[in-house]
Specification:
The complex is a heterodimer of chains A (about 325) and B (about 350). Chain A has eleven helices and seven strands. By secondary structure, chain A is an alpha/beta fold. Chain A has a single domain, classed as Rossmann fold (3-Layer(aba) Sandwich). Chain A is globular. Chain A starts with 17 loop residues before the first helix and ends in a 15-residue tail after the last helix. Chain B is an alpha/beta fold. Chain B has two domains: about 200 residues, 3-Layer(aba) Sandwich (Rossmann fold); about 130 residues, Rossmann fold (3-Layer(aba) Sandwich), CATH 3.40.50.920. Chain B is built from 13 helices and 14 strands. A seven-stranded mixed sheet of chain B has the order 3-2-4-5-7-6-12, sandwiched between helices. The N and C termini of chain B lie far apart (about 45 Å). The chains are: A alpha/beta (about 325), B alpha/beta (about 350). Chains A and B meet through helix 5 and helix 6 of A and helix 4, helix 5 and helix 6 of B.
Chain lengths: ~325, ~350
């Protein structure tokens, strides 16, 4: 999938070619199945700590990453599995990390919240809300200073809209015209805190105006819409025109993490959002446009399930890290 | 084969190139030489370029003129962003030297330093390195009062993943800063505001002082004194006074607190049997306690007396000269402590 990026589009063409949409479908489904399996493993007591599923939000990570080149950086959040998969991450090494195995991305030192793939310019999931904001802005500064042409994308949630660091880096990226796109995944809740209550002014995209930068809002349940909006902002950043905000309106179908009581949001609300499931929506479009048959989609489903089964089997068959690894990797 | 005359020639050549520089000039030279050597090195911070031609303490003076404001970047007053963006730049292929004007401002920037810079490598299983330097200055003695006079080295020493450097002489400042910039880890490089104007011999050209090698600033037989920053200078003054009484201090500057050259300190205590630790940071929870603990663990049987801390009082640094002087460890405090340690001897 890597390397077929933007060149697959004719100039001025706003439609993604069929094979890219099918890739998007496969990736979104991979995220969904990975997260479902992670929750199963967590509930079965095979995972420690916590896990934060990306279920329902798949179109955001996949749509944005469709607009990126392999050398573009992303930073992620505590809810990072989807971003890693969307950037091309290896589900075997991810699952092994979730199970704390030596073959995991971090050799079992990081777990679910600390998966990074530097080869794919994925600067890591991050356990601090807003923790990726400086990292992305710094990667954009490297891109500018070294004239690499790369863009950095910072994924963050609606909860991070109210961290002070966002103000600092938004201002800095604007005055330095850095190639960074701040992508807010507004999934409506920061744990139990409703976005409708926490966001003064109501519309987070409007905050961008204060920095003199574009702020777009997009339907985060529509992977094509996300891709189009992201591409506009990524291209703008790559041209040297500076940072921007993209607010993707979305919803986490399940709890903040596996232990979420989910008492703070009405069941009907979740059902309304589930009716807009981004994966089903894309499947329906693919079928309606004649870009895929039901049999082809079913085949992708089975392949994805087999891939996740394989990842779990790989992880379970992998050894835990040696205790000798405890004190390595503290310093370079 | 190196002959004696070759060695003499080399030594003379070094001497010929040694110049008297201030601590600030030595740091400036380190930055300049590393920026010339490595195009990925850049500087950013508040007032590092425009103010008086570079830095309120003149450490970055003239750098913007030579390297341009792309690589010598004035920032808004955004301490968290300065550090956080440096971490991201370092993780993506740059070698940033970020500056906080006062260490006291690091409270605003502890998150990216402690949770990002120090931990990324470990959390990511060694897949990333964060080759950044956070330069800042600390210390009291200038009437800057409670929010501009602290010595906070212990905060950083407590965080695995950070290195912590505290030079006390111009030559050490240059060699250690070069090492810090070339190091592949996040290094907190702590300068002292009263040291900027102090002068000393500084070799010309590139040289490094390895992180983790202490320097015995004055040898002596009776008491090991381990000092940080200004307290190295004060310990040397105390040593001059005490020498007249026949008490010899061995003054050690660890130069880097993480990594710590434990061996040099322990070997010294094995010789002297007595230890004073001294710093301008508050006594309680200070790094001196760590040094004492290690000496007790490793050389307990060699101690002739309990180790002594001659450190700042546990109080915010006051403004009035009378109060500030009383809050800080002074030469007389070192002299008194040394005499007490030696009361049965000499």
């Amino acid at each position: 999938m890597e390397g077929t990026g933007r060149t697959a589009l004719a100039p001025g063409d706003r439609e993604l070619p069929a094979e890219r949409l099918l890739d998007a479908y496969r990736q979104m489904l991979t995220i969904r199945r990975f997260e479902e399996r992670a929750l199963d493993l967590y509930r079965a007591g095979e995972m420690r700590g916590s896990t934060h599923p990306y279920i329902g939000m798949e179109a955001v990570a996949v749509g944005v990453c469709l607009a990126l080149e392999p050398d573009d950086y992303i930073t992620s959040t505590h809810r990072g599995h989807g971003h890693t998969i969307a950037k091309g991450g290896d589900v075997r090494r991810m699952m092994a990390e979730l199970l704390g195995r030596a073959t995991g991305y971090s050799g079992g030192k990081g777990g679910s919240m600390h998966i990074a793939d530097l080869d794919r310019k994925m600067l890591g999931a991050n356990g601090i809300v807003g923790g990726g904001m400086g990292l992305a802005t710094g990667a954009a500064l490297t891109a500018k200073l070294q004239r690499t042409g790369a863009v950095a994308v910072c994924f963050f949630g609606d909860g991070a809209l109210n961290q002070g660091i966002l103000h600092e880096v938004s201002n800095l990226a604007a005055i330095w015209s850095l190639p960074v796109v701040f992508v807010c995944e507004n999934n409506q809740y920061a744990m139990s805190a409703a976005a409708a209550w926490t966001i003064a002014g109501g519309d987070p995209a409007k905050r961008a105006a204060g920095y003199g930068i574009p702020g777009l809002t997009v339907d985060g349940m529509d992977v094509e819409a996300v891709e189009r909006a992201a591409r506009d902002l990524v291209d703008r950043a790559r041209r040297g025109d500076g940072p921007s905000y993209l607010i993707a309106t979305t919803y986490r179908f399940v709890g903040h993490h596996a232990g979420d009581p989910l008492n703070y949001r009405p069941k009907e609300e979740a059902e309304e959002w589930r009716a807009r499931d981004p994966i089903r929506r894309l499947a329906e479009r693919l079928l309606a446009r004649g870009l895929a048959t039901a049999a082809e989609l079913a085949a992708i489903d089975s392949e994805v399930l087999a891939q996740i089964d394989d990842a779990v089997a790989f992880a379970k068959a992998s050894p835990p890290p040696s205790v000798a690894q405890l004190l390595t990797d503290i310093y370079a | 084969m190196v002959t004696t005359s070759d060695r003499q020639t080399a030594a003379e050549a070094v001497t010929a190139h040694e110049r008297i520089l201030t601590y600030a000039q030595a740091l400036n030279e380190a930055l300049r030489e590393e920026m010339r050597r490595d195009p990925t090195v850049f500087v950013m911070g508040e007032d590092v370029a425009a103010w008086g031609g570079g830095g309120v303490f003149a450490v970055t003076r003239g750098l913007a003129e030579e390297f341009g404001t792309e690589r010598v970047r004035d920032t808004p007053i955004s301490e968290e962003a300065i550090v956080a963006v440096a971490v991201g730049a370092a993780a993506s292929g740059s070698r940033p030297v970020a500056e906080l004007m006062y260490v006291d401002f690091v409270g605003l920037a502890m998150e990216p330093l402690v949770n990002q810079a120090a931990k990324l490598r470990y959390m990511f299983g060694g897949k990333v390195s964060v080759p950044m330097v956070l330069r800042t200055q600390q210390g009291a003695g200038r009437g800057n009062a409670a929010q501009h006079s602290q010595s906070l080295e212990a905060w950083f020493c407590h965080v695995p993943g950070l290195k912590v450097v505290t030079p006390s002489t111009p030559a050490d400042a240059k060699g250690l800063l070069v090492s810090a910039i070339r190091d592949d880890n996040p290094v907190v490089f702590l300068e002292h505001k009263l040291l900027y104007g102090t002068k000393g011999h500084v070799p010309a050209g590139a040289y490094t002082i390895p992180l983790g090698v202490a320097d015995v600033k004055r040898p002596g037989r009776h008491i090991t004194v381990v000092g940080v920053h200004m307290m190295v200078l004060k310990a040397l003054q105390a040593a001059d006074q005490l020498a007249e009484e026949g008490i010899e201090l061995e003054v050690i500057d660890p130069r880097t607190l993480v990594p710590l050259d434990e061996a040099t300190i322990v070997e010294s205590v094995k010789k002297t049997g007595r230890l004073i630790v001294t710093h301008e940071a508050a006594t309680r929870g200070g790094y001196g306690a760590e040094i004492v603990a290690r000496v007790v663990e490793l050389a307990f049987d060699y101690l002739d007396a309990p180790p002594v801390r001659v450190c700042a009082k546990d109080v915010p640094i006051p403004y009035s000269a009378v109060l500030e002087e009383a809050a800080l460890p002074q030469v007389t405090d070192l002299v008194t402590a040394a005499r007490a340690l030696m009361h049965d001897e000499v």
